[in-house]
Amino acid sequence: MVSAQQLYELWADESAIDEALGRSLDPRGTEWLYTAFAALGPKPGDLVLDAGARDAKHAIRLVQELGVRAIALDPVPVHGELARAAVAEAGLADEIEVVEAAIESIPLADASVDWIWCRDVLVHVDAERGLAELARVLRPGGALLAYVTLATERLEPRERAELAEAIAIRTFDADVLEAAGDDAGLTLRSVDRLGSEWRERMIEDGTWNPGPDLLHIARLLRGELAGPAAEAAWGGLVWGIYQLLGKTCPTVYVWSRASST
C-alpha cells in the first residue's frame, strides 16, 4: 500500500502518466460489429434473423449493405410498430418481415434462417431457452453473432442486484451464457471481450458525453424521484458508466451450428 507521502510525491509529478493517458488506445467502435458480421460470409438473398430487433434499424442496415433478406423479431408491440414504420420508410417491405414474438418462442420452422444477429438482448432472456430456440431455427452451417453486456468481478453484489432489478436482467454471467450455448448444441467460434472500447470510441468521436449522464445519476440519487420509471432511468444511465469502469464487459460471441453430415 502506498504511503501518504509517496502518494503526494506521485501526484506532484504526473507528466508521464498524463502523457500516456492522453494517447488513444485505438478502441473499436460500434461500426466494428457490422464488419464482424459481414466477415461471417452472408450472401445476397440469404435470410438473417434479427433477434430482438427493436425498431429494425440493424435489420435495415444489414439488408441495405449486404443484400440479404431479414426477419425483424421483437416481442414488444411498440417496437413492432416502430419497425414496420421504419421498414416502410426504407422501402424494404418486401425484404424485411416484422414478427412480434419472443426469442424463447420463435414462430419459425427448424433450420429456416441462414444467419442470426442478436444485439443487446440475451441479458433480458432465459439463456437456455433463448439459445435453444436460436439454435433450432439456425440452418446447419449457419452462424449466430450475439453482442451482450456481462457482469465482471468489479461489479459489487448490491450494484448487480439493483441493476438487474431496474432493467430486467436475467442472464448476466459469461459462464452461464456459454454453458447455455453448449447445451443448445452450438459451437463457440470466437469471443471478443470489448470491455470499455465502444464507450471510449464514443467519447473520442464526440458521440457520447458521460458528463450529463453522471449529473442525472446524481440528481436521481439525491432527488425525490422514485418508482419503476426512475429506476429504469438510473439503470440506463449507469449502463455506459459501468462499462467504462470495467464493472460490466460488452462481449461479442459467434456461435455456429454444425453442418449436416
Describe the structure.
This protein has helices at residues 4-12, 15-21, 31-38, 57-66, 77-90, 127-137, 157-166, 174-183, 197-205, 210-222, 228-245; strands spanning 47-51, 69-74, 96-100, 113-119, 138-151, 187-193, 248-256. It has 261 residues and is of the alpha/beta class. It has a domain at 27-155 and 168-198 and 247-256: Rossmann fold (3-Layer(aba) Sandwich), CATH 3.40.50. It is globular and about 70 Å long. The N and C termini lie far apart (60 Å).
Report the sheet-strand fraction.
Answer: 15-25%
According to DSSP, the number of beta strands is 7
Ranges with pLDDT <50 over ≥5 residues? none
Biggest sheet, strands in spatial order? 3-2-1-4-5-7-6
- Rg over C-alpha atoms, rounded to the nearest angstrom: 21 Å
**Average pLDDT value?**
95
Overall geometric form = globular
CATH-derived topology of the domain at 27-155 and 168-198 and 247-256: Rossmann fold
Overall SS class: alpha/beta
| N-to-C series of helices and strands | HHHEHEHEEHEHHEHHHE
CATH architecture of the domain at 27-155 and 168-198 and 247-256, by name, is 3-Layer(aba) Sandwich
Give helix % range.
Answer: 40-55%
For the termini, the CA-CA separation is 60 Å
